[in-house]
Amino acid sequence: MAASWCIEKRGFIKNESFRDNDNIPETGCLSIIVLGASGDLAKKKTFPALFNLYRQGFLQSNEVHIFGYARTKISDDDLRGRIRGYLPRGKENDEVAEFLQLIKYVSGSYDSGEGFTALDKAIAEHEISKNSTEGSSRRLFYFALPPSVYPSVCRMIKNYCMNKSDLGGWTRIVVEKPFGKDLASSEQLSSQIGELFDEPQIYRIDHYLGKELVQNLLVLRFANRFFLPLWNRDNIDNIQIVFREDFGTEGRGGYFDEYGIIRDIIQNHLLQVLCLVAMEKPVSLKPEHIRDEKVKVLQSMLPIKDEEVVLGQYEGYKDDPTVPDNSNTPTFATMVLRIHNERWEGVPFIMKAGKALNSRKAEIRVQFKDVPGDIFRCQKQGRNEFVIRLQPSEAMYMKLTVKQPGLEMSTVQSELDLSYRQRYQGVVIPEAYERLILDTIRGDQQHFVRRDELKAAWEIFTPLLHRIDNGEVKPIPYKPGSRGPAEADELLENAGYVQTHGYIWIPPTL
């Protein structure tokens, strides 16, 4: 899909001084082309994100036209009808109708010049209608496509749809994960794309980097004095980064079985979060300075030990007719990653992700060491923890020990709580894709994965993944709706994590 538009600077981020490379022009046409416009990703994520940017004023009806491109032979109205059901309804009905009228559809294959010539012609006609000077237009191609077609699509764009950039215009591409299946396939894909586009033109999107609480990590760590002296191996015992879903593959079994939970969640989403938790303070907030520090974390990782990995596969997973009967693909994984540097030596980073578990959440759990000389003898109640809940019910809270109200000197565990729904009433938290699409328009690569970062991430996981693929490491069966294999809890205990029994965080009510 493509959106052609002229945009005016406005306060998506209130303090715009944070953005050293805010490259939004005051005038000029921009075309956002989403390839695979009739697919699920485009319908469920990309078009709704563009609509939300439109209704917030970042895309304006007199400046925008949206193009979709796919192989399916449908009309403009057919595509609009497919999208309509995924857009918000109610008082925005008029805005929905206006937005849908901005959409134009072009049909064509992904490896033939004919379709891309027609796409280029449609975009060029719109640019001319907006009196856009040749060379000043901007074209952003969003790949809502499987990675297998990335190389051919990149060649078609390079040959038929590039914008001349001599007057400030540009051409950028946004590619979705998975970026390969291991180090070799990732490097091959990166090389094929890199032969056609320069690194500043490539935006490897990981939607977790667009989540509100993930975006808050750098502010929390580097803008608050009381965290600075505590954020190290002297005070922190272990850090957990957790992703849990209470449903299985549900119709995606065939796709999921190709990748598994490590490739699908841990190697990208959770590892990106780990980098932000563990990195050193960057020189500035310029994207390259931040990404430099993330790469240093990855390059400091020790090889993963088999004895510090527990894999699981929920019972019933292979009942899916699209999943092979002999599948060795894990739907659950808990593993310990270790960073060999001065700050984190000896601190286990516990990564945990699974499907068909007993709850749905994603969170970061920083557990501090026991209080030395505990005169209250309250260690059995649990350690201090700082928890960042990424989803659902975004929140940050600190678990600490306090006196139980009453005449007795007894202690109890409670929390200091910042729950977003209560604290920021009436504030709509942007969806991750909204933020990241706007960043691509602004030319801000801070929240996107650089090629050397991607390579370093695959270097960490590829040996383990090959052992799983070869059947050398087997997943343990676990019941749907459980915590996962019991061996995973044993691994956490061996790594030093102390579970607080009897404590449940309850989000505050309004």
Automatic annotation (TrEMBL):
The keyword Oxidoreductase applies. Residues 33-216 form the Glucose-6-phosphate dehydrogenase NAD-binding domain. Keywords: Carbohydrate metabolism, Glucose metabolism, NADP, Oxidoreductase. Its EC number is 1.1.1.49. Residues 218-497 form the Glucose-6-phosphate dehydrogenase C-terminal domain. Signal peptide: none annotated. Coiled coil: none annotated. It catalyses: D-glucose 6-phosphate + NADP(+) = 6-phospho-D-glucono-1,5-lactone + NADPH + H(+). It comes from the Eukaryota. Pathway: Carbohydrate degradation; pentose phosphate pathway; D-ribulose 5-phosphate from D-glucose 6-phosphate (oxidative stage): step 1/3. InterPro entries: G6P_DH, G6P_DH_AS, G6P_DH_C, G6P_DH_NAD-bd, NAD(P)-bd_dom_sf. Catalyzes the rate-limiting step of the oxidative pentose-phosphate pathway, which represents a route for the dissimilation of carbohydrates besides glycolysis. Belongs to the glucose-6-phosphate dehydrogenase family. HAMAP family: G6PD. This is Glucose-6-phosphate 1-dehydrogenase. It comes from Datura stramonium (Jimsonweed). The lineage of its organism: Eukaryota, Viridiplantae, Streptophyta, Embryophyta, Tracheophyta.
